[in-house]
Specification:
The protein has helices spanning 2-29, 33-50, 79-86, 105-112, 122-137, 162-170, 182-185, 216-232, and strands spanning 52-57, 69-72, 92-96, 115-117, 142-144, 174-180, 196-202. By secondary structure, it is of the alpha/beta class. Helix 5 runs parallel beside helix 6 (162-170). Mean pLDDT is 79; it is low at 1-14, 24-32 and 237-242.
Length: 246
């Protein structure tokens, strides 16, 4: 509760500072990099206020400055910003379009260059994925939660394949990541943030060279391989189903 109160008191000031500095950074640097770095600093400050400790496992398995599509399990509102904080070279992600309508937050998402996904409009969704592919080809690493929404049970949900098709079409490896502890620090549906430890475990990247994004079997095999890697770090097995090809 103390951590939540601390964030409530300081986050508005941090957001105001970020909203002022992000566009200035873009103006003088000609890119969105500085805006993203400001966002990372805000995450770091909030984590210290709450009392969240960050632990990394097997970081040697990845080359953070190489272009990758990182895939992680999604159990909390905290797991995605945690991974984005730890991987400064991965400054792209897909976020549902509805989140861009939230005052200030949506503006900040646009300012740092996050990509909106229109989940109810297939044509717009394909356009967003194409934009993401072009960004990855240009050298921008993405962090994606293939479940698409937070797991309410702690078990891996169905994987959507959009992120895997992005990696295949861009010709970059998929790097699986397992996040543990985020669910305990902020459970799904909770508005409170609690002190705790968030552990991020990296797995060997999975190559996509030679795969065809239009081949359902190949995309499914890639998804299943990444799923097994992420699940191996959860230590509780089980999953809610196969990949979602719809």
């Amino acid at each position: 509760m103390v951590g939540t109160l601390g964030i409530a008191l300081t986050l508005p000031l941090l957001l105001i500072a970020g909203l002022v500095l992000i566009p200035l950074g873009d103006l003088f640097s000609g890119r969105r990099r500085l805006g993203y770095e400001i966002g990372r600093r805000i995450v770091g400050v909030c984590w210290r206020i709450v009392g969240i400790q960050m632990v990394e496992r097997d970081r040697w398995r990845i080359e953070p400055m190489e272009t990758r599509v990182y895939m992680l399990n999604h159990e909390s509102l905290l797991d995605m910003p945690q991974v984005l904080y730890l991987l400064p070279g991965a400054n792209g992600t897909l976020i549902k379009q509805e989140a861009f309508r939230v005052p200030l937050v949506g503006w900040a998402f646009r300012a740092v260059g996050f990509t909106p996904v229109h989940r109810k409009n297939p044509v717009a969704a394909q356009k967003s994925l194409r934009h993401a592919v072009e960004a990855v080809i240009a050298g921008r690493s993405f962090v994606i939660a293939p479940e698409g929404t937070r797991s309410r049970t702690g078990r891996l949900g169905r994987f959507k394949v959009g992120g895997f098709r992005i990696a295949i079409e861009a010709g970059v490896p998929v790097a699986p990541i397992t996040v543990r502890g985020a669910r305990e620090t902020m459970p799904p549906g909770s508005r409170l943030v609690y002190p705790g430890i968030i552990e991020v475990r990296y797995h060997d990247p999975v190559e996509t060279t030679g795969l065809d994004a239009k081949d359902r079997r190949q995309v499914t095999q890639l998804s299943d391989q990444v799923r097994r890697a992420i699940g191996s770090g959860l230590g509780r097995g089980g999953s809610a189903g196969a990949s979602d090809l719809d």
